[in-house]
Amino acid sequence: MSAPSSTAGLFFEDFRVGQTFISGLRSVTQEDLDDFIRLSGDGGAIHQDADYARSMGFEGPVVHGPFGVAIVFGLLFEQRLVEPTAIAMLDLQWRFVGAVVVGDRLRSTMTITRRRRSTSRQAGVLGRHFILAKEDGTVVQEGSSALLVQARDAAPSVDTAICTDFCTVPWARALEPLLLADARFTAATSSYDGTIGLSCGRETVQLRIYRGRILEVGRSTPSGPSFTLHGSELAWTELARADRNDFIARTSKGAFSMSGSAYEYLRMNKALVVLWDAVRALAAQEPVI
Amino acid sequence: MIQSHYLEVDGAIGFVETCGSGIPLLCIHTAGQSGVQWRQVLRELPDLGYHVVVPDLPGHGRSDNAAAGPVVDLSEYADWLAQLTAELGLDRPLVVGCSIGGKIALDIAARGPIRPRAVVAMAADAYNPQLSVTGLQRSLEDAAAPSRADRTFFGTLSSVGRHLPQEQAAVVAAMHRREDPVISTSDLIGWRTHDLREQLADINCPVRLVAGGDDFWLDPTAVAWAASQIRGAEFELMDGVGHYPMEEIPEFPQQLHRWFGKLLAKERTA
Question: CA separation (Å) from B80 to A48, A124, B55, B122?
Answer without folding.
Answer: 62, 66, 10, 20
